[in-house]
Amino acid sequence: MNKKIQSALISVFYKDGLENIIKALHQLGITIYSTGGTQQFIEALHVPCIPVESLTSYPSILGGRVKTLHPSVFGGILGKRNDATHLQEMKQYNIPEIDLVIVDLYPFEETVAAVNGPGFQAGEEEKEKLIIEKIDIGGPSMIRGAAKNHADVVVVAAKKDYGLLEQILKDQQGQTTLEQRRTFAIKAFDVCTGYDLAISNYFNQTAFANPFDKTKTVLRYGENPHQQGIFYGNKEEIFDKLHGKELSYNNLVDVDSAVQLIQEFNNVAANNIPPSGNGEQSAVFAIIKHTNPCGIAIRPTVKEAWDAALAGDPESAFGGVLVCNAPIDKATAEAINEIFFEVLIAPSFNADALEILQTKKNRILLVQKKTQAATHQFKSVLNGTLTQQNDTGNFTDWKEAGGRETTAEEKEDLAFGNLIAKHLKSNSIALVKNKQLIGKGCGQTSRIDSLRQSIEKAKQFNFNLSGATLASDAFFPFDDCVKIAHAAGISSFIQPGGSIRDKDSIEYCKQNNLAMVITGLRHFKH
């Protein structure tokens, strides 16, 4: 439905590009409400303007922190024009309808860049104060309110859209279509999303890596001997180091991957972790190499879990990082002591086990004290930083889509394998049988290459693939992977789905009595 703009609320930080809009609104006889510096700008153009204070009966207070946060403003923005109750209440409380909202946001990212730039003279506390004051409250609220009520209200949240608004005012004499208002609303929500993300990134990045509130450890070198390496953080909050040399850059990267993996098994209910075969408390042992799990198994005892994890790929285990979710006992220590490894992480070590493991002076033994993982990940790219929330959970759905239902044993192996695929570099394939990783493919540019790699790994160590399960971190774009896996003896699959050709893989499973589970949750790890 077309709507005619009768009134506008304008409150912007940057005034450039606004002049033509103001003049066009004035020529159309549109009532303008404004605040502070924007009001002065409008009045300097000899255009009449009603101060927001006349609506709220309050001046700008708390150093400008509170100006527009009032029912007389938000009622005018959010009131539904086709709702008799809304209209009656607006009349009762003298709330005018506001049909157009032009609001931008305080320059948060620009302020962060400026105070951290070369030549800016201020202490860290003062910098923080300046940045905090550029967290806009009223602006995002007005933008979101207007965007929510786009059935009646036009919202412009960025000066790059002034040109489009000016054209509408000129060509349509202040009339707007629902499609146009919806387009502006989408742009407005995008502005708010980007703004909130910038603020979240700042706080997470500051807490994660700022030297002034984190311990700085200079490492022997970085990823390679010619690269300098530094760790910002307090390792002692996470671990007690019982033995061995200092952790290197590469050790820390692998240890982080090991901790993220074992953390999955500290949240059994959320991640649908299968129990050990006899229903007793499960022990999980994993071997990490270059951040990828190369061996992992669930067994009733720690020693059995170690033996099964090692059997999955005894070659790759050489020089790896080991992690377990249960105390290391003497029998396990004797078995582990037979191979070379860099780091072993566990919740505790029995005294006799520790005596055995300390016979190699450089071997690093860590007791993990804190199991809560960080909530965000950071990565430097180009001239900036990427951040994202951690990839949590195992699956959001369990949709049986194949030619038959999964068996109880397959359900356990598929849930287990899906978590492993999540921690392998994409494209990833994990082959699991009896809660043991028996083959994996990762970091390949083709999912078929990862599948072939996983099958070859399993055959290399004499595993029987008949009845094995397959987990994929992303969907199958074609049915080729399912066909190759089936030919090798694999009979059940788990994958997120989402391909436009999902039906090809599903149809093949139906024709060949194979089980396939669709999870609805992708686990890329680049």
Overview of this protein structure:
Helix 1 runs parallel beside helix 9 (162-172) and helix 14 (330-336) runs parallel beside helix 15. The chain folds into three domains: 3-209, 3-Layer(aba) Sandwich (Rossmann fold), CATH 3.40.50; 217-376, Cytidine Deaminase, domain 2, CATH 3.40.140; 399-518, Cytidine Deaminase, domain 2 (3-Layer(aba) Sandwich). The two termini are 46 Å apart. Helix content is 38%, strand content 19%. The chain is elongated and about 85 Å long. The protein has 19 helices and 23 strands. The model is unreliable at 208-213 and 275-280 (pLDDT under 50). The strands form six sheets. A six-stranded mixed beta sheet has the order 10-15-14-13-11-12, sandwiched between helices. It has a six-stranded mixed beta sheet with strand order 18-23-22-21-19-20, with helices on both faces. The protein has 526 residues and is of the alpha/beta class.
Query: What fold name goes in the CATH topology slot of the largest domain?
Result: Rossmann fold
Query: N- to C-terminal separation?
Result: 46 Å
The biggest beta sheet reads: 6 strands, mixed
Q: How many alpha or pi helices?
A: 19
Specify Rg, calculated over alpha carbons: 30 Å
- Helix content range of the residues, please? 25-40%
Shape estimate: elongated
CATH class of the largest domain, named Alpha Beta
